[in-house]
Amino acid sequence: MDELTAAGIFDPELRASYKECRRLNSLHGKTYYLATSLLPKAKRPHVHALYGFARYADEIVDDLDSSRTTEEKASLLTSWGDGILADIRRGTSSDIIGRALVDTATRFNIPIELFEAFLHSMAMDLTVSEYLSFDDLMEYVYGSAAVIGIQMVHILGATDPQAYESAKKLGIAFQLANFIRDVDEDLNRGRIYLPLNELLIAGVTREALAARKLTSEIKAALIYQIARVRRLQAEAAPGIAFLDPTSQPCVVAASELYCGIVDEVEKINYEIFTHRAKTATWRRLNVALPAYIRAVRSRRG
């Protein structure tokens, strides 16, 4: 039985929407897609729908190949986002991504405020290029990452409310790990996500970061940021036990692979300006295979 049939999705147009979301996930979210494959078939399409929504909005904001101005991107994001939010309230959509998202949000009673917060953070990317403090950054990270963790719990299934708080922390850890890996790429977009006051404490100025040359000060700043990722990951770990047992292997694998990005930064000796930290195929397999065995056992009860 295919995933869509297992999820009770039979309408041809709705199936097409879910397939498009799945395509985006498989194309752009390889780690996310791998972790999703560890879930029971009936849950996978709904995770793809969340990814498709997030990816489509992100593409509007970060499409470097288009000739659109910032104002045009903002207008397009607002128009598309407002349309999707209206569709969620109405319970139906004609948008290729919106159909699957609305169906998922309705089935699992996901609060619309979570999608509003995400779109708010995407809009911030068009107007905010740096953050003075970690508290300032958290406004962005809440919408771009924490709410995705909360959305996921609605699909994964929670046996205790503590699962939601842990999901928030894990989502934040994933995002912060990406910021560390993507410093060079984000500079190309004119953005700095590492809090400026924390950089200054380590002796790193905007100019030093923009010079894209690893110094002892930048290395110290990265070490500080990496420690925060690991702390959040450790704080989130106990909450995984409050998820439905069939969902736990997926989240454990995602935690190790996403937060493991910082391990890869260390392996390249923090040379983030000349190398892109990547999770090796062998590590993906070492994480995925045991997780797959646990996933199969959990479904057998």
Report on this structure:
Helix 2 (12-28) packs across helix 3, helix 3 (30-36) packs antiparallel against helix 14 and helix 7 (112-124) runs antiparallel to helix 8. The longest helix has 23 residues, at 134-156. The protein folds into 2 domains: 1-110, Farnesyl Diphosphate Synthase; 128-301, Farnesyl Diphosphate Synthase. It has 301 residues and is mainly α. The model has no long low-confidence stretch (mean pLDDT 94). It is built from 16 helices and no strands.
In short:
Helices cover 70% and strands 0% of the residues. By secondary structure, the protein is an all-alpha fold.
Topology:
Blueprint: H1 3-6, H2 12-28, H3 30-36, H4 44-62, H5 70-90, H6 98-107, H7 112-124, H8 134-156, H9 162-181, H10 183-188, H11 196-201, H12 206-210, H13 216-236, H14 248-259, H15 261-267, H16 281-299
Determine the strand fraction and express it as a percent band.
Answer: under 5%
Our Rg estimate from Cα atoms comes to: 19 Å
Q: In the residues, how many domains can be counted?
A: 2
> What is the makeup of the main sheet?
none
Q: Which spans of ≥5 residues are poorly predicted at pLDDT below 50?
A: none
Which shape, going by the Cα principal axes? globular
The number of helices is: 16
CATH homologous superfamily of the largest domain, by name?
Farnesyl Diphosphate Synthase
Structural class by sheet pairing and helices: mainly alpha
CATH topology of the largest domain: Farnesyl Diphosphate Synthase
CATH class descriptor of the largest domain: Mainly Alpha
What distance separates the N and C termini?
Answer: 20 Å
Mean pLDDT: 94
Q: From the 3D coordinates, which CATH architecture of the largest domain would you assign?
A: Orthogonal Bundle
Helix content: 55-70%
- Total beta-strand segments: 0
Order of helices and strands: HHHHHHHHHHHHHHHH
